Q: What sequence folds into this?
């Protein structure tokens, strides 16, 4: 419980908590699964009480990148089992439960230096600073676009991977299945820009891999906002079945999020009526987040 509470706090409070990285491994909150996407695959690696790390593997080059490696031992175990070369760290934001494993991962690396990408100089081990929205870089045979989505933190980055016909996006604590992150360092306007102007514009088929296993509580909140939304109800039933089997809820898709996620639906009158903010989607975003925070 302490870890769960700690992981939700701003880094100013938790920056001296790296000793927790040394704690023994406990039972994972979800099973490890692998999702195939033609040119690449994504292995879902559970960490802490509800975090997700992701091992992105380019099938043609066997090059691997890890997203938010808070549990380096789990990462190296997956790298060795998959027989791939880890070259890149994609850090979504500086919070300890996402970036807190960077130093240990770097120090335990026996290959060439890891490239650590992020949008915040508070990220440990950072080698490539992304301070401009939409920066592209090549990873093996794949193209990765860095989407700056400040709000949860000022330097938050989502990573959009284009692998030909298959697209995925790693959204950290900006977009969750059925929800969004708290506005720790930003505003409702920024979250509106992130969710509606940036992430909603990705292809509907884009697979969404988020930073935490919060799906059930998020979907229950969605039903509180839109009790007659059958897409939310169906998704909740599906997720509850998965969780009983310890299967992770991820990935979602951008198209599904537009149907089930109230924070992606702030331009819909059915959501605006609940917050009494008809005609003002940014105020709807603010009121929704306040409502979620206080439930």
A:
């Amino acid at each position: 419980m302490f870890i769960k509470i700690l992981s939700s706090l701003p880094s100013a409070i938790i920056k001296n908590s790296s000793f927790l990285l040394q704690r023994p491994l406990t039972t994972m909150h979800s099973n490890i699964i692998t999702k195939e996407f033609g040119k690449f695959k994504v292995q879902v690696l559970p960490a802490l009480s509800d975090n997700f790390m992701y091992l992105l593997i380019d099938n043609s080059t066997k090059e691997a990148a890890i997203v938010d490696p808070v549990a380096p031992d789990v990462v190296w175990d997956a790298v060795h089992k998959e027989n791939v070369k880890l070259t890149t760290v994609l850090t979504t934001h500086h919070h300890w439960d996402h970036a807190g494993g960077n130093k240990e991962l770097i120090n335990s690396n026996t290959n060439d230096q890891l490239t650590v990408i992020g949008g915040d100089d508070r990220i440990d081990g950072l080698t490539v600073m992304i301070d401009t929205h939409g920066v592209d870089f090549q990873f093996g045979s794949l193209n990765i676009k860095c989407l700056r989505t400040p709000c949860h933190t000022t330097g938050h980055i989502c990573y959009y991977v284009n692998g030909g016909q298959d697209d995925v996006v790693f959204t950290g604590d900006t977009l969750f299945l059925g929800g969004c992150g708290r506005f720790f360092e930003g505003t409702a306007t920024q979250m509106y820009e992130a969710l509606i102007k940036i992430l909603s514009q990705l292809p509907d088929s884009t697979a969404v891999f988020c930073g935490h296993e919060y799906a059930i509580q998020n979907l229950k909140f969605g039903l509180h906002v839109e009790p007659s939304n059958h897409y939310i109800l169906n998704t909740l039933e599906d997720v509850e079945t998965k969780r009983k089997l310890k299967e992770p809820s991820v990935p979602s898709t951008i198209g599904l999020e537009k149907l089930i996620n109230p924070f992606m639906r702030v331009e819909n009158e059915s959501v605006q009526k609940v917050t009494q903010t008809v005609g003002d989607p940014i105020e709807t975003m603010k009121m929704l987040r306040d409502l979620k925070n206080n439930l």
Q: What stands out?
A: The longest helix spans residues 230-244. The first strand starts at residue 33 and ends at 37.
